[in-house]
UniProtKB/TrEMBL annotation:
PANTHER family: CYCLIC DI-GMP PHOSPHODIESTERASE CDGJ, PTHR33525. The lineage of its organism: Bacteria, Pseudomonadati, Pseudomonadota, Gammaproteobacteria, Oceanospirillales. It comes from the Bacteria. InterPro entries: HDOD, RNase_Y/CdgJ. Residues 196-381 form the HDOD domain. SUPFAM superfamilies: HD-domain/PDEase-like. Gene3D superfamilies: Hypothetical protein af1432 (1.10.3210.10). This is HDOD domain-containing protein.
Length: 405
């Protein structure tokens, strides 16, 4: 199969998270058809296993694919390799007439099998079927009461679909539902915090200086050496396999020669932020992807100062990562009006890039279609940003675990 063809297929991902927003799997959704036919489903599965850009969308997590019963039979016939990287799901109404032996064969090849329950009643399942099902996905209104507590929870993972606000998230916790999908992100309320904790205030001070595009090497170096932990982690990362230099870098000045000031500033910014968040690493990964996609869109559009676009993407999720209200963060950071207006109101070119990245996160195909960015440019930026964020996060983890600078 032609990987370039598959990469150009409009694919986006929706995370399946636990209640701490650790990603359990990513649902892959094709823009052309919400439920892929056998040929396109086979292409997606093959791409996940063979195309680095599509594989980068998953960040090492399984792919959840909503499909049809008829497609599963064709899939089993067409593809012979292991399916350990996949969660396969069909609608509850399609269970009738589905071959149980087919499902057993797919599970034997490593797949997890699940049911999408859009409305009641719950399908009747004998023991043989019950033993093959790993998860149920349903709107939270379907999972209310006895169904969740007595029927689903004791046997299967339940995924609440459409968790788009704090009210629904709170209901999910009360029902002891372990997984969710939706637009909700854990943003703090102003009333929840009166002043910024000292450890995060230091991080914001670092972000403040690094966000200045005119910062000099001397200022950057002076700031970094004040925090020895940041200094050593930065050097460990620069000397990691991510860059794979043929000599050891021993100082910030040497790093500048090999990386350039803009890259050095961005990497320091990322590591400083990673040091200051206690949230799920997958939320940090989301911020990295959003930031890099904004930067890619600026570069592809020929817009100057691409680091400003990267910073805007990162800053737009600081409230989630630092658990500090955005109003307090913006009051501490002397940001340009372009970044502030982009983060708060999606204004200007920076705001357009940020909105496009968020549209991909929400898999809003209509808004993606209506965006000022050409579809191929936007899709390439999305895939490359995800791939970059995956590689960067893995290298950061390896650098932290390494004891050698």
């Amino acid at each position: 199969m032609d990987n370039n063809h598959t990469s150009s297929m409009p694919l986006a991902r929706v995370p399946v998270c636990d209640r701490e927003f650790n990603v359990l799997a990513y649902e892959l959704i094709a823009g052309a058809t919400p439920q892929p036919q056998s040929s396109s489903l086979s292409e997606v599965i093959t791409a996940v296993l063979t195309d680095p850009r599509v594989k980068g969308l998953l960040n090492g997590k399984p792919a959840l694919l909503l499909t049809k019963a008829s497609v599963l039979a064709q899939l089993h016939q067409d593809l012979s390799f292991p399916l350990t990287d996949f969660w396969l799901m069909i609608a509850a109404e399609e269970l009738h007439g589905l071959d149980l032996n087919l499902i057993k064969k797919l599970i034997k090849r490593g797949a997890r099998f699940g049911i999408q329950l859009s409305q009641l009643p719950m399908p009747e399942l004998d023991e043989n079927w019950s033993n093959q099902i790993a998860f149920f996905r349903a709107p939270i209104k379907v999972l209310q009461g006895r169904l969740q507590v007595e029927v689903i929870a004791p046997h299967w993972l339940s995924i609440a679909h459409g968790i788009d606000d704090a009210t629904l998230f709170n209901q999910l916790q009360q029902l002891d539902i372990k997984a969710l999908q939706g637009r909700y992100l854990p943003r703090p309320e102003v009333a929840e915090i009166k002043r910024i904790p000292s450890n995060k205030l230091i991080a914001l001070q670092i972000l403040s200086l690094l966000g200045d595009v005119n910062v000099s090497l001397e200022e950057l170096e002076s700031l970094i050496v004040q925090d020895l932990q940041l200094y050593y982690k930065l050097l460990r990362f620069i000397n990691s396999a991510y860059y794979n230099f043929n000599r050891k870098i021993n100082s910030i000045k040497e790093a500048l020669i090999y990386l350039g000031l803009n890259t050095l500033r961005s990497i320091t910014l990322v590591i400083a932020l990673a040091e200051s968040t206690t949230r799920s690493p997958d939320l940090f990964y989301l911020a990295l992807t959003r930031a890099k996609m904004c930067e890619h869109l600026a570069i592809a559009s020929g817009w100057a100062n691409e680091s400003m676009y990267f910073n805007a993407g990162l800053i737009s999720l600081l409230d989630v990562l630092l658990e500090i209200p955005m109003s307090m963060i913006l009051s501490e950071l002397p940001l340009s009006s372009a970044i502030k207006n982009a983060v708060l109101h999606f204004e200007g070119r920076t705001g357009a890039a940020l909105q496009c990245a968020i549209n991909y996160e929400l898999v809003d195909w209509q808004k993606i279609e209506d965006s000022q960015f050409e579809k191929e440019i936007a899709h390439t930026a999305y895939l490359e940003a995800s791939r970059w964020a995956t590689a960067l996060q893995q290298s950061l983890i390896a650098a932290v675990e390494s004891q050698e600078c």
